Amino acid sequence: MALKVHRTLMSPKCKRKDFLIPEMKYCIIHTIETDEKMMPVEKGAINGGLMNRREIKHPVITISVESIDATLSKLNHHGGKVIKDKMSIGDMGFVAYFQDCEGNVLGLWENKVK
Hints:
By secondary structure, the chain is mainly beta. The protein has two helices and six strands.
């Protein structure tokens, strides 16, 4: 994992013991201050995450949607294909990955309703 490089450059708080989702070896990369819900306090700013590579071998932009299921249902009609089906990420939400008609891989994020 490229954790050492990313920790040095961007987020010294990201250590193996701090993995948010240990089974995925997923760690949040903080580039900006966050509130108590771990959301950026500066409008328009984002943070990210780092995990071991698996099926997807390059960085991915992940887009928040109301419903992953509804979004993926439109995918084939527009020339895309599912790379990784919807999966639960702890008690936070769901993620899925798809490839668009130009070969770009993107992620979809859906918050869990609490």
